[in-house]
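Reminder to self: keep the SMILES exactly as supplied, no canonicalising. Ligand is 2-acetamido-2-deoxy-beta-D-glucopyranose.
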Amino acid sequence: MRLGGVVSALAIVITLFAIWGISVNKTYLWALKENEKYEVQCKDIPRSDCSPPVLFKAHPGCCPHKICPADQYPFFIRSGVANIVGPKICFNNTIIMGEVKNNIGWGLNIVVVQGETGEILKSSYFNTHSGGLLEFLKSVQTGNKIFVASYEDPAVVLTDEIREIFAGLGSTMSRSVKRRDTWVFAGAAGIVKESPFEKLVANDEKSNVYGDWPEMREVGGCFPRKI
Ligand SMILES: *[C@@H]1O[C@H](CO)[C@@H](O)[C@H](O)[C@H]1NC(C)=O
Ligand SMILES: *[C@@H]1O[C@H](CO)[C@@H](O)[C@H](O)[C@H]1NC(C)=O
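Structure tokens returned for the bound complex:
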């Protein structure tokens, strides 16, 4: 009887902590979202005059400015955060896809760039409702670069054939991406080795930071024009 009481009390305490944890991160997500909106409003204002009004400055909407050698292009990819904050793909220190540009969606967000000139060839997002990812990937030509960011659930569009195409673009993790995982990847058509620019976080209810979703991930660096 007494032991039962202790166990119930423990269960209640654990549940309360779990609820508290989720609400803490709801606040964090809200702050991220507010942060993004504010960054949109002040994107043409000097950074020193423009600090977001919310709790902390977590992941600002602008691209982290990066200088690369002349034969390389800077890029930056951030995955979506849970199903709340959209992903961001920057190329040459410019946002190509993001909340700011209102051109992102659940599923996979993808930008394709002409390798040497740096021209943006196409950008789109794919989920069960939009389809078309296979045709999109088949039109990627040798030397093109590809930048991929997950949002909410990347696995919905990943057929075996599509996973293999990503593997051919340098991905070592595309075959392992599961429902609601976080995945960011930069690769190239004609790449001979594995891309170093890839991160995957598994959706695991025991370690998820956002309830049904794991932590977000970022990857960035200098991508060689020629591969
Ligand atoms: C909430 O999210 C932040 C950032 O992702 C993380 O550092 C923190 O541990 C999370 N808090 C809880 C209670 O899960
Ligand atoms: C990349 O950025 C540099 C510096 O802003 C600019 O001069 C160049 O034209 C850009 N290249 C492309 C392909 O956008």
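Points to follow up:
Residues 54-224 form one domain.
The pocket of 2-acetamido-2-deoxy-beta-D-glucopyranose (ligand 1) is lined by residues 21, 24-25, 28, 209, 215 (CB under 6 Å).
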